[in-house]
């Protein structure tokens, strides 16, 4: 009897663990019940997907049945989409049409989200707004101490992102003030900086690409955004392929999968072949074992490993700059990129080889010495970046102990840096094998 009970308990535990791996169904939660009802009223019917919590990705959508390549994952009617057309048909429309200079489509959508969130129970979009994240982890939302721990190229872009939102806020104050007749409270308290940052991140991380014809009431910036309730719960995986587009016949935004998905597993879509720095910058997350990921070598780091005594150094740097070889120099899962090795070959050209720089840029072999030197320098740079990354990871673990409030953001940067370390260690291994082969 005891044996049988133990086996039953093990079976039950295995079933529970399996359920946790597959995802915990959340469709019974009130916020999702209300969202489903709201979507149904707008013509959306769905039997393939259920909201669920997953161990690896958090909130997402699970398949209620096995999906085959070519299957329709979701078809969201136009009435469910939130676009600049939605904004113009709201009470904001008249104010946008009158405002000069014209506002951007992005600002129009931000303004609408802030206004609807402020309206609370009165907003017809409340069921959607209630399932949107309350906070985001885009670099623009990260603390200064956390931004400083990002790799150089991403740190620069994160600071630019922050400044862009600050500039958008500064330049939009007069437009926000013009909306005062619509509100009992002061527009300054409704359309504050944190509200704009939240709205901007919502649009930047969650919109689908949907081209709209240009309207005179908007600036010339492209009008390509659409917020897609429910569909935007689908998480990204670099390992799946999908076809996504607005179907003019059915007047719905449709996603078809090119991959298989088992019943009760998470359904993924692909946001594009992005590396982890781009994913963090645009969407606020990092993908583990991302095949598209790479570690960038800054121009400063590259030049640190070229001889200052080289009389042609200045000319070589100018050549690399003119031909775009000081950017997008990377280490990937398959070792140093062709661009990085080419830049190192140009910097390593001997005085008697310098005249061959054009051929070197095109990928020709100048000399065995030059090839070997490029590999040696790549290995040194790789080792330098490994040590730098390990140092940052140590800083992060210390900060996680000292600053409890930054734990979530620090964990994100830690994941990015840990993935970088794996790539660099793999590159170091490849370079070591290449050096052994040429020895």
Automatic annotation (TrEMBL):
Q: This chain belongs to which protein, by name?
A: SET domain-containing protein 4
Q: Taking every annotated instance into account, which residue ranges of this chain make up the domain SET?
A: 42-272
Q: What is its quaternary makeup?
A: Forms a ternary complex with TBK1 and ZNF268; the interaction with TBK1 is ZNF268-dependent and leads to TBK1 monomethylation.
What does the entry list under GO cellular component? Answer: cytosol; nucleus
Q: What is its EC number?
A: 2.1.1.364
Coarse class of the primary localization is: cytoplasm
**Record localization:** Cytoplasm, Cytosol; Nucleus
Origin organism of this chain?
A: Edolisoma coerulescens
Q: Name one GO molecular function term.
A: histone H3K4 monomethyltransferase activity
The reaction(s) catalysed by this protein are: N(6),N(6)-dimethyl-L-lysyl(20)-[histone H4] + S-adenosyl-L-methionine = N(6),N(6),N(6)-trimethyl-L-lysyl(20)-[histone H4] + S-adenosyl-L-homocysteine + H(+); L-lysyl(20)-[histone H4] + S-adenosyl-L-methionine = N(6)-methyl-L-lysyl(20)-[histone H4] + S-adenosyl-L-homocysteine + H(+); N(6)-methyl-L-lysyl(20)-[histone H4] + S-adenosyl-L-methionine = N(6),N(6)-dimethyl-L-lysyl(20)-[histone H4] + S-adenosyl-L-homocysteine + H(+); N(6)-methyl-L-lysyl(4)-[histone H3] + S-adenosyl-L-methionine = N(6),N(6)-dimethyl-L-lysyl(4)-[histone H3] + S-adenosyl-L-homocysteine + H(+)
Q: Which UniProt keywords apply?
A: Cytoplasm, Inflammatory response, Methyltransferase, Nucleus, S-adenosyl-L-methionine, Transferase
For this protein, the record's Gene3D superfamilies field holds: Rubisco LSMT, substrate-binding domain (3.90.1420.10), set domain protein methyltransferase, domain 1 (3.90.1410.10)
Q: Which family does it belong to?
A: Belongs to the class V-like SAM-binding methyltransferase superfamily. SETD4 family.
Classification via InterPro entries: Rubisco_LSMT_subst-bd (IPR015353), Rubisco_LSMT_subst-bd_sf (IPR036464), SET_dom (IPR001214), SET_dom_sf (IPR046341), SET_MeTrfase (IPR016852), SETD3_SETD6_MTase (IPR050600), SETD4_SET (IPR044429)
A Gene Ontology biological process noted in the UniProt record is: methylation
């Amino acid at each position: 009897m005891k044996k049988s009970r133990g086996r039953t308990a093990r079976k039950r535990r295995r079933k529970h663990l399996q359920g946790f791996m597959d995802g915990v169904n959340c469709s019974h939660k009130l916020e999702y019940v209300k969202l489903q009802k709201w979507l149904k009223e707008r013509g959306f019917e769905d039997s393939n997907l259920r909201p669920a919590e997953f161990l690896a990705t958090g909130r997402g959508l699970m398949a209620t049945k096995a999906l085959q390549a070519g299957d329709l994952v979701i078809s969201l009617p136009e009435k469910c989409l939130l676009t600049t057309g939605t904004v113009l048909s709201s009470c904001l429309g008249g104010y946008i049409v009158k405002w000069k200079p014209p506002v951007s489509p992005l600002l129009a959508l931000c303004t609408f989200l802030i206004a609807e969130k402020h309206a609370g129970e009165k907003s017809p979009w409340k069921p959607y707004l209630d399932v949107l994240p309350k906070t985001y982890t885009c670099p623009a939302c990260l603390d200064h101490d956390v931004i400083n721990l990002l790799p150089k190229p991403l740190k620069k872009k994160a600071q630019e992102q922050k400044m862009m939102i600050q500039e958008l806020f500064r330049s939009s104050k007069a437009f926000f003030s013009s909306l005062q007749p619509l509100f009992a409270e002061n527009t300054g308290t409704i359309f504050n900086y944190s509200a704009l940052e939240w709205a901007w991140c919502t649009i930047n991380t969650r919109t689908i690409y949907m081209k709209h014809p240009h309207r005179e009431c908007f600036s010339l910036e492209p009008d390509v955004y659409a917020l897609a309730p429910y569909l935007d719960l689908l998480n990204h995986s670099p390992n799946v392929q999908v076809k996504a587009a607005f179907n003019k016949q059915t007047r719905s935004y449709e996603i078809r999968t090119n991959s298989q998905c088992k019943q009760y597993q998470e359904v993924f879509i692909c946001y594009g072949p992005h590396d982890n720095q781009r994913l963090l910058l645009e969407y606020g997350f990092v993908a583990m074992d991302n095949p598209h990921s790479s570690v960038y070598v800054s121009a400063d780091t590259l030049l640190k490993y070229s001889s200052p005594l080289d009389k042609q150094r200045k000319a070589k740097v100018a050549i690399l700059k003119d031909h775009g070889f000081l950017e997008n120099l990377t280490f990937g899962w398959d070792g140093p990129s062709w661009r990085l090795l080419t830049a190192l070959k140009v910097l390593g050209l001997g005085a008697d080889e310098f005249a061959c720089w054009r051929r070197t840029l095109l990928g020709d072999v100048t000399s065995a010495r030059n090839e070997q030197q490029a590999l040696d320098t790549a290995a040194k740079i790789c080792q330098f970046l490994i040590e730098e990354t390990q140092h940052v990871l140590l800083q992060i673990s210390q900060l996680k102990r000292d600053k409890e409030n930054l734990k979530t953001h620090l964990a994100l940067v830690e994941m990015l840096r840990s993935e970088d370390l794996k790539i660099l260690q793999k590159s170091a291994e490849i370079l070591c094998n290449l050096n052994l082969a040429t020895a």
